[in-house]
Design brief:
Structural class: mainly alpha
Largest sheet: none
Radius of gyration: 35 Å
Helix content: 55-70%
CATH architecture of one domain: Orthogonal Bundle
Distance between the termini: 72 Å
Length: 342
């Protein structure tokens, strides 16, 4: 319908049609002329209301797990900790009186303790460094795409599924001085003339158990580092290749900085694990000969087998304290280094 036009060709303001259009276009009056606020729709999900009945249901589901952890984790920890301050010996249970720091003083006065500490340092450092280097190299190799890569990964990850004590027995046979495969291979290669008593000689016993632990622990580093390497985008390597970065520069300026956090955490976990890992040593030497392969944890177990639970518990608390101090210093150092390089 045409709009009424006045004399000058403009819309007639007095026309009823024009007045109706103006009323439709004008916004309705409001008492609070502020910004419009979107109203929540009916489809928006509401947060469930926490009630006492709901809390009781959650507590009922958590109670079995909490009771299990309290009985089998916290109670043994507290009971074992208090044994360190008592005269707790299975050979004489008539006197379990409180002796304070007596067990700790006896441990620190025992010269075997310092021999065991030295063995523990050799055990940890001699195992962790080769495990890290070899595991890193294998992880870099497995990151590449090649034929039968999944098969190689399965073969490399397989040792981690075997018991540590079983690995110790296996390597005890391999290092046997009479029919061991290690001496046989060395003799055929004309490296040695007579068999070496690997596990009977104090000079070679620790070397043998460290070699076994290296073989066993490489898999852990390979798994952790490979998972971290697969999280690095390929675009970063492509950008580095365009900039002319070689393999060494790519490794130290792209790969390692990208997974530095994973490397630090993996090393920390592995140090704690090796420090508390007596399985291989018990399977190969049992701590001998002459305590030359005893580490702190195997020495603690041997004292437990003698029935002196008080002294063994004191050694356990010393181990916990040493690992806590190491963890604090290690995490502080790595955090400061990451903060400096970032």
């Amino acid at each position: 319908m045409e709009e009424p036009v006045g004399l000058a060709g403009r819309p007639d303001v007095n026309s009823p049609t024009t007045d109706t259009q103006d009323r439709q276009a004008a916004p309705p009056p409001t008492d609070n002329p502020g910004p419009a606020v979107a109203r929540p729709t009916a489809q928006r999900s509401r947060r469930p209301v926490f009630t006492g009945r709901r809390g009781l249901s959650i507590a009922a589901f958590m109670a079995p797990a909490a009771v299990f952890v309290a009985i089998f984790v916290y109670y043994p920890m507290i009971a074992g900790g208090q044994m360190a301050f008592r005269n707790w010996n299975l050979n004489d249970l008539t006197d379990t009186s409180w002796v304070g720091l007596k067990n700790f003083r006896e441990i620190l006065a025992d010269p075997v303790f310092y021999t065991v500490l030295g063995n523990t340092a050799v055990w940890v450092v001699g195992s962790i460094v080769p495990q890290f280097v070899i595991g890193f190299a294998i992880a870099l190799w497995l990151r590449r795409k090649f034929r039968f890569r999944g098969l190689y990964q399965a073969l490399i990850f397989f040792p981690w599924a075997i018991s540590g004590f079983l690995i110790g027995i296996l390597f005890r046979w391999m290092f046997n001085s009479e029919f061991g495969v290690i001496n046989d291979l060395l003799e055929k290669a004309h490296v040695i003339d007579t068999p070496i008593p690997w596990l009977a000689d104090p000079k070679t016993a620790m070397t043998a158990v460290v070699i076994a632990n290296i073989w066993y622990g490489v898999t852990f580093f390979t798994i952790m580092i490979l998972a971290a390497l697969q999280s690095i985008p390929d675009e970063i390597y492509e950008a580095g290749a365009i900039d002319g970065a070689g393999k060494v520069r790519t490794l130290f300026q792209i790969t390692i900085p990208s997974i530095r956090g994973t490397l630090a955490l993996t090393v920390l976990l592995r140090v704690i694990w090796i420090f508390n890992f007596p399985d291989i040593i018990f399977g190969m030497t049992g701590g001998g000969p002459s305590n030359e392969t005893h580490i702190v944890t195997t020495w603690m177990i041997s004292i437990t087998q003698q029935g002196d639970y008080g002294k063994a518990s004191a050694i356990g608390l010393i181990v916990v304290a040493m690992l806590m101090v190491f963890s604090v210093f290690y995490l502080t150092a790595t955090r400061e280094r990451n903060g400096t390089t970032s």
